[in-house]
Each structure stands twice: as C-alpha cells, then as structure tokens.
C-alpha cells in the first residue's frame, strides 16, 4: 500500500511516489483525523486508489454497505464534470500522412491543448465528452452513457443518475442468488435482486 504503519505512525511508502509528490502525500497522511469516521473514510479512499481496476473493490463496498452510495457519487461527479468544463468539448488531432488517412495518435489533445497552439494548427477535430447538454433528453452523454455506469450493479433507471433523490431498486447485484436459508436466517435483512426468487 502507498501508506505504511512504521514505528507507531503512518508514513508514505516512498517507492510509490516521485520526489515531487512525496511532501504532498505525507501532508495528506498527517492531516487525516484520528476519529473513527474520518479514519474509515481515509481507508475507503485508499482502497479506491490501491485497488482500482483489480475487480476487488465491489466486494469491499458491499461489505461496508457503500456500493450504491459510491456508484451514485461517481454518476454525480460525471454529471458535474459534463457541466463544469472538466471534459473537453472538442478533441483536435493531426494526420501522419499527406492523404489524411492515418491519425497521428501522439497529436491528439485528449485532455488539454498544447501551449501556444490553437485549433487552426490541427488537421481535424471531433466532438468529445464535454459537448453535452443536460437539458436535452436526447443527449447521449447524460441519458445513455451516464445511466450505463455500473448499471449491472444498481440498475440503469433514471433514479440511478443521481439527478433525483430516489434510490435505485437494485441494491447489490450478485452473480448467484443468495440461498433461501441464508435469507431466512437474516430476518429480512438480505434479499435477492433482479428477479431471483427466495
């Protein structure tokens, strides 16, 4: 993990950071409150950084009863980024051949335009994620792509967008149904989703 408990205190594991980021990382650790809720929140965030893309985070979020809130948070952030300009509206690029059939992949402005270069310096452009309109119910980013984020886990209904306060009907999506004896023993705490019968 990027953080290690050494000699009675939490320290940054130096091999995870280059020297320019070590001070900022250590300051983050030093500012984590020792109260239970703050420390738990730091663990949840560390878990996200450490295990991103490893297919394990879902199970931790379910264990912490945070799967739905975290997916909803991701969708709300996606919506926020569409509106505040975080995502680029246009991606520019150059071609690598005179016939303009091959795009020079190193020229694509995925995140920002290089300094001192304007749109006229590029051979072509394409509409990107940021060209979105939340008021248009036909907008692909808001009403198609956004609902699909983790829709297999919590459903893809409009309520799961984070636009309204309604919670999605699916709470935790499992590969297999929970056994009927387990559900009975839980005294109503556990239930199956997606039409699984008890």
From TrEMBL:
Record-annotated RagB/SusD domain positions: 25-196
Keywords, ordered alphabetically: Cell outer membrane, Membrane, Signal
InterPro entries, per database record: SusD_RagB_dom, TPR-like_helical_dom_sf
Pfam family name, one: SusD_RagB
Keyword presence, Secreted: no
Localization, UniProt: Cell outer membrane
Annotated transmembrane regions: none
Cellular component aspect of the GO annotation: cell outer membrane
Taxonomy, superkingdom: Bacteria
Family that this chain belongs to: Belongs to the SusD family.
Protein's name according to its UniProt entry: RagB/SusD family nutrient uptake outer membrane protein
């Amino acid at each position: 993990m990027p953080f290690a408990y050494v000699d009675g205190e939490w320290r940054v594991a130096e091999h995870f950071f280059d020297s320019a980021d070590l001070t900022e990382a250590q300051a983050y650790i030093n500012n984590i409150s020792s109260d239970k809720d703050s420390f738990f929140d730091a663990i949840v965030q560390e878990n996200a950084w450490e295990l991103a893309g490893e297919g394990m985070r879902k199970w931790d979020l379910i264990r912490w009863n945070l799967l739905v809130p975290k997916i909803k948070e991701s969708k709300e952030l996606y919506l926020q980024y569409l509106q505040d300009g975080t995502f680029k509206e246009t991606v520019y690029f150059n071609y690598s051949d005179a016939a303009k059939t091959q795009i020079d992949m190193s020229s694509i402005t995925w995140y920002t335009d290089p300094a001192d270069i304007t749109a006229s310096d590029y051979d072509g452009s394409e509409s990107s994620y940021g060209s979105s309109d939340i008021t248009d119910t036909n907008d692909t980013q808001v009403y198609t792509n956004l609902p699909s984020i983790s829709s297999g886990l919590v459903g893809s209904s409009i309520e799961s967008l984070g636009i309204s306060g309604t919670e999605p009907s699916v709470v935790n999506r499992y590969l297999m149904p929970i056994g009927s004896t387990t559900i009975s023993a839980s005294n109503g705490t556990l239930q199956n989703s997606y039409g699984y019968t008890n």
